[in-house]
Amino acid sequence: MLLIPAIDLAKGRCVRLRQGDFTRETRYPSAAHELLERYRSLGASWVHVVDLDGAQQGERANQQLITDLAGRGSLKLQVGGGIRSAADLEELLSAGVARVVIGSAAVQRPEEVLHWLKHFGAQRVCLAFDVRLEPGGEPQVHTHGWTQRRNLSLWDALAPFGAQVRHVLCTDIDRDGMLASPNLHLYRQALARFPHLQWQASGGVSSAADLGALARLGLAAAISGKALLEERIPAEELRPFLPDASSPASTFATARS
Questions:
Q1: How wide is the angle at C-alpha 79 spanned by C-alphas 205 and 19, nearest 5°?
Q2: How far apart are CA 5 and CA 244, in angstroms?
Q3: Of the four listed, 57, 180, 190, 242, which is most buried by Cβ atoms within 10 Å?
């Protein structure tokens, strides 16, 4: 399983939200390009970048910053937030982004997004579904930066895409930014229902033990933001999940320098 560090951007700054709540924002002093280099030095091959302004408002306010990060070429970028059209997708891919994440549009306009998957290729598009679990345990989809609840389960949201989709990111909103461990039951269900998909888990990662538990389930990747931003997991414990990590001693020294 691959660990993909996350960089969330709001008004050009690196932030983290608690449970998807835009009023519960924590700002971090590191600039986005500094985080990119820190994660490269740890051995990451991909970084997940979210334009939170775009996710909430539908306008990609951090586009120039994301273009600058992609232009550095040091890591592959998976970018989401506010992508509402094929032109948005084309612009990001042309700027050097390796994979574009489609969230709200996949729920609201699945037929159109299915066309994007066919046109741009399943390797370059990742569908993202942010969910909250209902009392009965069914994952219910939310859109527009977690702010709008849809009367749609995760399973029904995926149904229109069939074999055309390959990469799917699922975020448990209630665990996002909470360091409360991932929802293993949710991802176990996801893998059982759609075993052909390359699932990415997001929300709750706080330790190497959490990463190990996700890996044992058979997930393709795990997204981690807060735990890595705050360096809660020792660098040597991250090595099994970072393909370009060097030896424990040199990785740890680089990450702390």
A1: 40
A2: 13
A3: 190
Report, as residue numbers or ranges, the catalytic residues.
8, 130
Tell me the C-alpha distance between 71 and 36, whole Å: 12
Q: What torsion do the CA atoms of 166, 65, 22, 103 make, to the nearest 10 degrees?
A: -20
Report the Cα 133 to chain-centroid distance in Å.
Answer: 19
Q: How many Cβ atoms are within 10 Å of 12's Cβ, its own excluded?
A: 12
d(Cα 98, Cα 80) in Å, to the nearest integer? Answer: 11
Q: How far is residue 194 from each of residues 14, 92, 117, 137, measured CA to CA in Å?
A: 33, 28, 18, 17
pTM of the complete model beyond 0.85: yes
Q: Which CATH superfamily is domain 2-256 in?
A: Aldolase class I (3.20.20.70)
Q: In whole angstroms, give the CA distance from residue 236 to residue 46.
A: 18
Span 25-51, average pLDDT: 92
Task: Confirm if 80 and 42 have CB atoms less than 8 A apart.
Answer: no
Inter-residue contact 229 to 9 (CB < 8 Å): no
Tokens of 202: 């997001």
What local confidence, expressed as pLDDT, does residue 254 receive? 40
Instruction: Give CA–CA dist 102/79, Å, rounded.
Output: 9
Q: Which of 175, 246, 181, 248 is nearest to 217 (CA)?
A: 181
- Tens digit of each residue's pLDDT (9 = 90 or more) over 10-34: 888 888 777 666 667 788 888 999 9
Centroid of chain to Cα 130: 10
